[in-house]
Design goal:
Layout lengths: L3 H13 L3 H14 L4 H14 L2 H14 L3 H13 L3 H6 L1 H7 L4 H13 L3 H14 L4 H13 L3 H14 L4 H13 L3 H8 L3 H13 L19 E5 L4 H7 L3 H5 L4 E5 L5 H5 L8 E3 L12 E4 L3 H4 L19 H12 L4 E6 L26 E5 L15 E3 L7 H8 L4 E4 L3 H9 L3 E5 L20 E5 L7 H16 L1
Helix pairs in contact: 1-2, 2-3, 3-4, 3-5, 4-5, 5-8, 8-9, 9-10, 10-11, 11-12, 12-13, 15-21, 19-20, 20-21
Length: 490
């Protein structure tokens, strides 16, 4: 009869060959001889983890640890917990692990990861820092730490951590991009814009235009900032509506540098931009145009313009006092339909595109903190996804249901005394129009709002209100409600 070791060796070889069922049989034969063999229990835990049986994997590995608490047994156990999103169970083992294996990088890393996933950022930072003292070459460790530093507004630390990531992985475009985000959050645009060119939406925008106009949009006629006084420049949108509204502030600058400016933009934005001749755009394209009808000399994506223009310091925030205007006739129509009263008119929105970022979504019922304040009338500007949430709010006027493009939205906004919304395109539109707007931010703040939230660099009419505690909207809405009451009483 084979010994335990012989069964283990047979099972291990089968395991390595991917013959999991046969390996399991060999391991079980070993256990039939030595039921408390910790090594075999751990191997069965690894095998069950591979098969996706998380519960049985945990059972086997916990038995192995009970018999002999080895570091690599805990590593298997933590992987099982991670697969099952049982991060609290990792944290429950924290003290034991630190006592037994204080210098084990992998275990400390997984404790940090567990804290990160339950959104306890301060403890996560502490354990990533401990782990990186043991292995300072861990790219993933520094990358995760940089993100947490950024969330916690430790911008200098975030930049330093991303600089280490860049040294560890210098050719990686994702690393360069997130390094740029750390720099931009710190308001270091002089350096950050160079690395911001590695963003995915830029690459996607360029590639779309190359596929649409393969004979005209080429690498050799990309505009790099050279003199184009007698040339036609094609600029094309990238990213979402809010990004486009934010970055069209640079179009009047480039329009003065070229003979003709053509702009490819999203259809819902075209009417608004066409009504703003000061943007300097000679031709807008919002649907397919045959290549034979498109004539230009050089091209560039919209969000590359500040880098191409070589803008420095506060010049980045060009026209922060507002650079768009609403159509007067549409403004009057909206006034007659919705806003012909003497109350303080406040527009609200709680949700943008949830595909990219759900943290910025505000539960609609949070606005109950505000609705009903004396002498106010609230108007919902929520459109499409999330508009069904307006049913949770009483005594509001639903404007959003009638808005079909940003020209109509701009005209309606200009009738308001104040806009209160989440971080969404409506906030950018209000800011670009110079309308007072209070943006309610989650704990993790987007890079463009920087670290000092007492001022909004991009829009002088905008105020920023951040969650005081992660995932808690109540405190920030109580503060906003008090601010409204104070403003009314003055």
């Amino acid at each position: 009869m084979p010994s335990v070791k012989e069964y283990v060796d047979i099972g291990f070889n089968l395991h390595q060959d991917g013959k999991l069922e046969e390996a399991e049989s060999a391991y079980n034969e070993a256990l039939s001889i030595d039921s408390g063999n910790a090594e075999v229990c751990n191997l069965l835990g690894v095998l069950k983890l591979q098969q996706g049986d998380i519960a049985l994997a945990v059972e086997y590995v916990e038995k192995a640890i009970e018999k002999s608490p080895q570091a690599y047994f805990f590593e298997t156990l933590f992987q099982a917990y991670i697969r099952n999103n049982d991060y609290e169970k990792i944290i429950a083992k924290k003290d034991l692990v630190i006592k037994l294996f204080p210098d084990n990088f992998s275990l400390l890393f997984n404790i940090a990861l567990a804290y990160k996933n339950i959104r306890n950022n301060k403890e996560a930072i502490k354990f990533y820092e401990k782990a990186l003292k043991i292995d300072p070459t861990s790219y993933q460790g520094w990358f995760n730490l940089a993100h947490l530093y950024s969330v916690e507004a430790q911008t200098a630390n975030a930049v330093s951590a991303m600089e280490i990531c860049k040294k560890l992985n210098p050719k990686d475009s994702e690393t360069r991009y997130f390094y740029s985000i750390a720099l931009l959050r710190e308001k270091n645009y002089n350096k950050g814009l160079k690395y911001f060119e590695s963003r995915l939406c830029r690459e996607a925008a360029v590639e779309i235009q190359k596929k649409t106009y393969p004979n005209k949009v080429r690498d050799d006629n990309f505009w790099h900032g050279e003199r184009i006084k007698n040339k036609t420049l094609l600029v094309y949108y990238e990213a979402g509506f809010g990004d486009v509204i934010q970055f069209v502030r640079y179009l009047p600058i480039v329009a003065k540098l070229c003979k003709k400016l053509i702009f490819i933009c999203q259809k819902p934005l075209t009417p608004l931009f066409k009504e703003n001749s000061q943007l300097g755009v000679a031709e807008y394209i919002d649907s397919f145009v045959p290549e034979s009808r498109l004539d230009f000399d050089v091209h560039a994506p919209l969000m590359s313009l500040p880098y191409i223009l070589g803008l420095k310091d506060d010049d980045i925030f060009a026209f922060s006092g507002g650079y768009l205007r609403a159509n007067q006739n549409k403004y009057e129509e909206a006034k007659k339909k919705y806003f012909d009263n003497y109350k303080i008119k406040i527009g609200i929105k709680w949700q943008g595109n949830t595909y990219f970022d759900k943290d910025r979504v505000i539960p609609a019922e949070m606005f109950k903190h505000l609705i009903g304040i004396e002498n106010t009338q609230f108007y919902s500007f929520q459109t499409f996804e999330g508009s069904e949430e307006s049913a949770k709010l009483k005594d509001i006027v639903d404007v959003g249901k009638d808005l079909v493009d940003f020209s109509q939205t701009a005209a309606a906004l200009c009738n308001l005394d104040l806009v209160i919304c989440n971080d969404t395109s409506l906030a950018h539109l209000a800011g670009a129009l110079g309308i007072p707007c209070w943006i309610i931010l989650p704990w993790e703040v987007n890079w463009r709002w920087h670290t000092d939230l007492s001022v909004c660099d991009w829009y002088s009419s905008v105020r920023l209100f951040r969650q005081e505690k992660m995932d808690d909207w109540n405190d920030v809405f109580n503060k906003v409600a008090q601010e409204i009451k104070t403003a009314i009483s003055e």
